[in-house]
Design brief:
Layout lengths: L3 H18 L2 H17 L3 H18 L2 H18 L2 H17 L3 H18 L2 H18 L2 H18 L2 H15 L1
Helix pairs in contact: 1-2, 1-3, 2-3, 3-4, 3-5, 4-5, 5-6, 6-7, 7-8, 8-9
């Protein structure tokens, strides 16, 4: 009936139900249909939502390279729209995927690019998350000094955003280096 937004919402809901019930291939197909519609609508937020569902399913299926490919595709799409917040979000997802695969260089590159954008946007909370992710990469590499620098930056940003639960998590990360 021409209600593309409603169609996308229905597809997302059905895809989520399919994923929960174990029909991962069906869910992936529906998330893909939703992504295609969101691209037609030039809706970066909708595309990111569909991507999130697709990434979850790809990871559950162990199809990491497919997940990275899909992330790269959506990254190119949101870049073409000129939506810096969406670009930063997708870069963070890309960093998370690469981190899960042990691609520390790729993860670090994605997180740093995301952080640069978030700093320009002044998004203190998301900056804190990116800084914590960079700290985790340095920690895994055994670069304690750099990890502490990133964790301290993350702690400061979480303090500024008023998220005490995340502050506690970062303090725990710092303590893991110190003890």
């Amino acid at each position: 009936l021409g209600d593309v937004e409603g169609e996308c919402n229905s597809l997302m809901g059905l895809a989520s139900l399919m994923a929960e019930s174990g029909n991962l291939e069906g869910a992936l197909q529906l998330f893909g249909q939703c992504l295609a519609l969101q691209k037609e609508r030039e809706d970066s937020r909708g595309a990111i939502s569909a991507l999130g569902g697709m990434l979850g399913v790809c990871c559950r299926l162990g199809r990491w390279q497919e997940a990275i490919h899909r992330c790269d595709d959506v990254l190119a799409f949101v870049r073409s729209l000129g939506d810096p917040e969406a670009v930063a979000t997708v870069l963070c997802s890309q960093g998370n995927l690469r981190s899960e695969l042990g691609d520390w260089d790729g993860a670090q590159h994605s997180y740093k690019e995301s952080l640069e954008i978030l700093e320009r946007l002044g998004d203190t909370y998301s900056m804190a998350v990116a800084l914590n992710n960079l700290g985790n990469i340095c920690y895994r590499r055994g670069d304690w000094t750099a990890a502490l620098e990133y964790y301290n930056g993350s702690l400061t940003s979480f303090e500024q955003s008023g998220d005490s639960m995340s502050e506690a998590s970062v303090v725990s990360n710092i303590a893991s280096i110190c003890y």
